[in-house]
């Protein structure tokens, strides 16, 4: 009897050691400009995303997921560092058309790092040190060039592929011969996985999809042109919808390959987006990409595969892009570099089915101008969200439980709550050493306009169509500024 008990105990210990020794493969899919409802599992009804919907149902959907920044570069820096923007100093996409001191800027915006500082310990560096073979296949946007300390191969990735490697012209996602960029990146991922053999792999897939210009495969474009014509829907862009389905097809193709190789139960897949969607696709939320309103930062997110318990309910907890850094490290059984402290929290308890995690305040800091975005910061404590605008030194306060679309500003009716949250936000900005606008812009010209250009249109109908519903909100904001 004692011998059997001992053997059972020994078996449990052996199983525990074996489980801890497992090094799951990791695939991190990071989409460009996919808004919160642009995929079926988040409510999309026109663009067809059967693969993403199927696999999301096999895992967990994060219903309250947010990008850590309202635009491309800082969101990627947060994802790969696990940190808030003040830690790495990448606040925006550096663009000379929006340089601090531009005539159309009312105040002097803070300067942003153009590349990820080399002292930042990236997720790829941790994974590589832990025995993983690593690949970045797609958009980097955190340092120029192919091989240098600030490019993927200098930041922990063994392999880096970008559009130029496949002969694509700048801002083109389809070639004249019909080759499609997302297909090429997926082919590269499949090849990389096959070459990894017995070594665990970390594949970072930051597709250029679904950023404009929309140049989807011809048969998909034709499909949605016909679909919209039949329904009489002239508001939607068939090129955009076709680009969404083309992305879904590639995720499906990648998953089928994992299944054919017997790797689907040895691989964890994470899926999310870098910022909110384009104006025409974000209703009823306020704002869009570039803005710290909900429409600019709320994104779809899901996880499935190894270590993820199938959940019939959506996870309601607040999840940020920077959370994937500690999550992946814990899931891989690795340790954080002691010199690098992430701000994100591990989602592994969520993946395993734990109902909730105690999370305090969360923050966003965007001290720059780009597009419609202006210097602003956010603090959210769960229910309430406060947005501070540096131009006019004013705040807006929203109760997201009752008003998720940010239509009713409570700043004047909940003064104590507003003041308390402002104090906490300012304390956080000081603690993190956040760069902030330095004062009025002496070159400001109220008649000046941004030098920005309209996005180059692809084979779809439009580049980034406007949002009729957002004009009222813009008028309201202008009136507040005038008071």
Walkthrough of the structure:
- With 483 residues, this protein is of the alpha/beta class.
- It has one domain (24-357, 450-482): Alkaline Phosphatase, subunit A (3-Layer(aba) Sandwich), CATH 3.40.720.
- 31% of the residues lie in helices and 14% in strands.
- The protein contains 13 helices and twelve strands.
- The protein has helices at residues 2-21, 50-57, 72-81, 85-88, 123-129, 181-196, 218-231, 238-260, 294-297, 324-331, 348-351, 415-431, 470-482; strands at residues 25-31, 60-66, 133-137, 159-161, 201-205, 267-273, 301-305, 315-320, 362-366, 376-380, 384-389, 394-399.
- The strands form two sheets. The chain has an eight-stranded mixed sheet with strand order 4-3-5-1-6-7-2-8, sandwiched between helices. A four-stranded antiparallel sheet has the order 9-10-11-12, with helices on one face.
- Helix 7 packs across helix 8.
- The longest helix is centred in the middle third of the chain and has 23 residues, at 238-260.
- It is globular.
- Residues 1-20 and 453-483 have low confidence and may be disordered.
Short structural description:
The chain has helices at 2-21, 50-57, 72-81, 85-88, 123-129, 181-196, 218-231, 238-260, 294-297, 324-331, 348-351, 415-431, 470-482; strands at 25-31, 60-66, 133-137, 159-161, 201-205, 267-273, 301-305, 315-320, 362-366, 376-380, 384-389, 394-399. The chain has 483 residues and is an alpha/beta fold.
């Amino acid at each position: 009897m004692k011998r059997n008990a001992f053997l059972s105990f020994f078996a449990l210990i052996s199983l525990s050691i074996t489980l801890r020794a497992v090094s799951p493969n990791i695939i991190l899919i990071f989409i460009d400009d996919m808004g919160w409802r642009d995929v079926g599992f988040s409510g999309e009804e026109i663009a067809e995303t059967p693969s993403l919907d199927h696999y999301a149902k096999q895992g967990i959907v994060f219903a309250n997921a947010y990008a850590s920044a309202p635009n491309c570069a800082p969101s990627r820096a947060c994802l790969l560092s696990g940190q808030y923007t003040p830690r790495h100093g990448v606040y925006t996409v550096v663009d000379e058309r929006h340089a601090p001191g531009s005539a159309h800027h009312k105040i002097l915006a803070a300067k942003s790092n153009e590349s990820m500082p080399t002292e930042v310990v990236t997720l790829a560096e941790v994974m590589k040190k832990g025995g993983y073979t690593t690949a970045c296949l797609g958009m980097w946007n955190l340092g120029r060039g192919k091989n240098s300390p600030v490019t993927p191969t200098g930041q922990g990735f063994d392999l880096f592929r970008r559009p130029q490697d496949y002969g694509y012209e700048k801002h083109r996602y389809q070639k004249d011969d019909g080759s499609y960029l997302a297909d090429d990146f997926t082919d590269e991922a499949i090849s990389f996985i096959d070459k990894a053999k017995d070594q665990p792999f970390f594949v970072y897939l930051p597709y250029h999809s679904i950023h404009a210009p929309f140049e989807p495969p011809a048969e998909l474009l034709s499909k949605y042109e016909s679909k919209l014509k039949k329904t009489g829907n002239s508001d939607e862009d068939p090129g955009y919808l076709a680009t969404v389905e083309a992305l879904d097809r590639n995720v499906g193709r990648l998953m089928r390959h994992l299944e054919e190789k017997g790797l689907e139960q040895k691989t964890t897949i994470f899926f999310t987006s870098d910022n909110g969607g384009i104006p025409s696709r974000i209703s009823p939320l306020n704002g869009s990409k570039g803005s710290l309103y909900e429409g600019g930062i709320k994104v779809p997110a899901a996880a499935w595969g190894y270590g993820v318990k199938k959940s019939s309910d959506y996870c309601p907890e607040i999840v940020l892009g920077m959370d994937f850094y500690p999550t992946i490290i814990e899931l891989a059984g690795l340790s954080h570099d002691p010199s690098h402290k992430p701000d994100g929290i591990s989602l592994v308890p969520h993946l395993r089915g734990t109902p909730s995690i105690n999370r305090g305040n969360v923050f966003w800091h965007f001290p720059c101008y780009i597009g419609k975005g202006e210097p602003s910061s956010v603090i959210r404590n769960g229910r309430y969200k406060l947005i501070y605008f540096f131009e006019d030194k004013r705040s807006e306060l929203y109760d997201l439980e009752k008003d998720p679309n940010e239509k009713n500003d409570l700043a004047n009716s909940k003064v104590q709550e507003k003041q308390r949250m402002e104090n906490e936000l300012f304390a956080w900005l000081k603690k993190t050493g956040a760069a902030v606008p330095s004062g009025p812009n002496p070159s400001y010209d109220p008649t000046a306009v941004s030098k920005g250009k309209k996005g180059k249109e692809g084979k779809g109908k439009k580049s980034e169509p406007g949002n009729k519903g957002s004009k009222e909100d813009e008028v309201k904001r202008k009136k507040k500024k005038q008071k």
